[in-house]
Amino acid sequence: MNRRLRKSGLWTGALALTLALSACTSSGGKEKSAISKLDRKDKGTLKVAYFNEQAFFMQYGNAFQTMFPNVELEVVSTESVFNAEDPVAEMEKLVKEQQPDALYLTEDQYAKLAGKGMLYDLDAVVKQDEFDLDGFQPSVIELLKAKGSGKLFGLSPSFSTQALYYNKDLFDKYGIPYPTDGMSWEDAMRLAARFPAKKDGDDALNGLFQSSQTSNPFELVRTIGEAKGLTYADADAGTVSIDSPEWKSIFQAVIDGYKSGSISMPSDNGGAGGGVFRSMGGGKMAISITPDSMRFMSGQAAMTIDGPMIMNLMGMETKIGAAGAVRSSKSTDSTTVKPMGSPFKKFEWDVVTVPVDPSQPDVTGNMSLDSVFSINAASENLSAAWEFLKYANGEQLAKTSAKSSPSLSARTAYKTQESGKNIDAFYALKANSQAILQTLPEGFAADFSQLAAEQIKQVVAGSATLDQALKEIQTKGQLLLTKANTSVGQS
């Protein structure tokens, strides 16, 4: 199972099909079947697995039915799947029981179903239909194939990654040079340390504020280590290797930042102090803003590492000033309107690529797929299902979504636009396949991260030395891995 949880997304579909069976190979297996063209006048059915019916028709169904009016659409709700304790296993169960034709999957669900032979291999139909993959961000296709053991079992219209945002006004104020694309993690931390850090109060200031989605102080250590090609555990060998000079150096640099306040310490309630965004089903996003999570947007951090949605909030001070007014309950004969103060601060900002390591200067480990559209390998409506996948991942929808969606379009011709900003920073790096494809036993990564977090906090508080902490993480981490591997072997 994948070592990190990914943002969830939901979606599936299926349609009528005419199959032209091909001849058997000399080995006795079948060649991939050709999928015949679905005409606008053709009748058929398409059974789609998606979060809920209303969301599906608003996002895709109504427009698709206009294209193919004689295709009957049926939605299999996956809402219960994404609220389950194990959404991956629940999706597998739903596909077996309901047999939808098309599927809207999370990255983890896609990898699991592909590995079990439950998804249709798209390589032949992409070539047959001359579907243009060259218009996609190369890393998206590479990641889809990597998760499919070298084959393409789905398409993703968008992806997630991060960039380093920086407050130009603060850099100018303190005479510090701006960050640059391809900057090393060491250089980024040195820049952060040049600001006069203050942890608390109205004038609090961090040189580097961690992602609004980061809740564990080990996350930054792990990210830097993976950028250097390091791993802390090998499930196949059954060994943990965190107590090494290379890892110690990273721990030391990050902990020094936590102690001084130049790097923000994530809080236990999530998101480096509260979190800004929380994923919801159907590709929707709830916004939860707390004072801590707004530190960069309120001018209390020189840099932050985060996703593209931050860009949508950076102009909030203008939007709130124009539309934000509250009604006063003190007035009895008329309603008094008062302007609502903005929690955001207006300043000049831009983005560069997330820091990298000189040994792997063109990769990032934080790329993931928001959602994947796939076809059930057992579908009897392949033609309709394929037309649906083409529409959901096509140029027309990408062009429309580029103006309204906070996600990063997988089609590079329709990148998110922000006037004067270095949007290419989100597209410049490739996926770090070593980090993304590393697999660890169920639950181990989360348990190990919690163990490491506790030890980091003790070192920051001064109740343990780094050497003591690393020995504790190594010893207890090894026990956790041995136990997790034993559990896997017994299951």
Automatic annotation (TrEMBL):
<keyword id="KW-0732">Signal</keyword>
<keyword id="KW-0813">Transport</keyword>
<comment type="similarity">
    <text>Belongs to the bacterial solute-binding protein 1 family.</text>
</comment>
<feature type="signal peptide">
    <location>
        <begin position="1"/>
        <end position="22"/>
    </location>
</feature>
<dbReference type="InterPro" id="IPR006059">
    <property type="entry name" value="SBP"/>
</dbReference>
<protein>
    <submittedName>
        <fullName>Extracellular solute-binding protein</fullName>
    </submittedName>
</protein>
<dbReference type="Pfam" id="PF01547">
    <property type="entry name" value="SBP_bac_1"/>
</dbReference>
<dbReference type="GO" id="GO:0030313">
    <property type="term" value="C:cell envelope"/>
</dbReference>
<dbReference type="InterPro" id="IPR050490">
    <property type="entry name" value="Bact_solute-bd_prot1"/>
</dbReference>
